[in-house]
Specification:
This protein has about 450 residues and is α/β, with parallel strands linked by helices. The protein has 27 helices and 9 strands. It folds into 4 domains: about 110 residues, Alpha-helical ferredoxin (Fumarate Reductase Iron-sulfur Protein, Chain B, domain 2, Orthogonal Bundle), CATH 1.10.1060; about 55 residues, no CATH class; about 130 residues, Glutathione S-transferase Yfyf (Class Pi), Chain A, domain 2 (Up-down Bundle); about 120 residues, Rossmann fold (3-Layer(aba) Sandwich), CATH 3.40.50.11810. Strand 8, helix 25 and strand 9 form a beta-alpha-beta unit.
């Protein structure tokens, strides 16, 4: 559709996949979503709740223009999908939000500053090579002492909120292990799996990818790591950049089709969530629609696949108390809650503690914490307090954004807690490592 035609169309939405009225009608406005919604919990504003946003979608279909106020309420949503878990009517809020945000990106004219910020973010984060190129300067910044000096000086507080948050989120870099294109199974081969290396995961948490390959191999999987794989499109899809997300999705499908694997394994909750939606994302593409549907059938979160296969590698004791944080796009979007806990509780000596308000988002939500730093900071600090209240030695979760967000909030509160991905803990147990060797 010509962009001028889109802006001339009356009402909030054009004819290219507006939010579906039949999905809107599923909402009975019962209010079960309200206590689960992070922005409603923060502000108590009806239009910043799922049912309020659904009402705005309905008014847009009925001819209401796409106003600045309406866009603000859609932008404020974290897309955490906690409302989907809470909803007794099965409302497909995630589909409605994706369709609405794609409309907003096509039809709403943002300010020059907003445009510049979004373009800067999306010219960097979905590109693994560009993120990896930042490792050298960031390592120098951290090792030179400049990082500590700036934080003590208070100068960072004078920066804009986005730059301040971005600096606080930067993890301490570790050595980046280069993974081969294939890691053979140890013992009897039980499956051939492809592994997504991701963008942020690959650049800033390379040890997680290395641990993923080792754990899969010890559990009897040939691990295929397609070279040159790019972004899965999760960040773009989450923010309504539909065409960009479609391009990334096609490329991922191409990469893993060539690999000819039984399953495609993902160790990042946000990535796995959108990859399981490729059939919907590519439904209009005659060259990819059927291929996307076949691809989706192969996608598994790492914990999901490991539980499906069942353990064969022995677990050694880990004398550690952990708090497990449900990443929103694992628990709410994919419905995967029990599998990570089952894997962790099977480790001798490990004690798992639950977090108060565990279902509430930490505020990371893709790039939400960069675009909406104030509410993201409030949510992050709230989550960090609840994590610290468990008294656990280690916070474990399955998403790099959550790890960075909660670490930054804990630091802001003057506290610290050790952090680990679920697979890092499993790897340590399987290998029989002492705490200082893996944390």
């Amino acid at each position: 559709m010509d962009i001028r035609t889109a802006f001339e169309t009356p009402g909030a939405f054009d004819d290219h996949h507006p939010p579906q009225r039949e999905l809107i009608d599923d909402c009975v406005h019962c209010g079960f979503c309200l206590p689960a919604c992070p922005t409603y919990v923060l502000w108590g504003e009806e239009m910043d709740s799922p049912r309020g946003r659904i009402h705005l979608m309905e008014t847009g279909l009925d001819g209401e223009p796409l106003s600045e106020s309406m866009v603000g309420h859609f932008d404020a949503c974290l897309g955490c999908m906690a409302c989907v878990t809470a909803c007794p009517s099965g409302v497909q809020y995630g589909t409605l939000l994706s369709e609405t945000r794609a409309q907003v990106e096509r039809r709403h004219e943002r300010s020059r500053g907003e445009k510049a910020l979004r373009e800067a973010i999306f010219s960097l984060f979905p590109y693994p090579k560009r993120l990896r190129a930042m490792r050298g300067p960031l390592a120098l910044y951290q090792r030179s002492g400049l990082r500590g000096l700036l934080r003590r000086s208070g100068l960072l507080d004078r920066l804009g909120p986005t730059l301040r948050v971005m600096e606080s989120l930067t993890p301490t870099l570790t050595r980046r292990e280069r993974l081969p294109s294939r890691v053979p199974a140890l013992g009897t081969r039980r499956a051939v799996v492809g592994m997504l290396t991701g963008c942020v995961q690959d650049a800033f948490f390379p040890a997680v990818n290395a641990a993923t390959a080792r754990v899969l191999a010890t559990e009897g999987c040939d691990v295929v790591i397609p070279p040159g794989q790019g972004c899965c499109g999760a960040l773009s899809e989450h923010m309504g950049r539909e065409s960009e997300a479609i391009g990334f999705a096609r490329s991922i499908i191409d990469s893993f089709e060539v690999a000819a694997v039984d399953h495609v394994v993902v160790n990042s909750a946000g990535c796995g969530s959108v990859m399981k939606e490729y059939a919907h994302l590519l439904r209009d593409d005659p060259g990819y629609a059927d291929r996307a549907a076949s691809f989706v059938e192969k996608v598994r979160d790492l914990s999901e696949l490991l539980v499906e296969l069942g353990p064969v590698a022995p677990r050694h004791p880990l004398d550690v108390t952990i708090a497990y944080h449900d990443a929103c796009h694992l628990a709410h979007a994919q419905g995967i809650r029990n599998q990570p806990r089952e894997l962790l509780r099977a480790i001798p000596g490990l004690e798992l503690r639950e977090i108060i308000e565990g279902e509430l988002c930490c505020g990371s939500a893709g790039v939400y914490n960069l675009i909406n730093p104030q509410p993201a900071t409030e949510l992050g600090d709230r989550k960090a307090r609840n994590v610290l209240a468990t008294g656990a030695q280690l916070l474990v979760t399955a998403n790099p954004g959550c790890l960075m967000q909660i670490a930054a909030s804990a630091g802001r509160l003057g506290e610290s807690i050790a952090l680990a991905h679920t697979v890092t803990v499993l790897d340590a147990s399987i290998r029989g490592l002492r705490p200082r060797e893996w944390r």
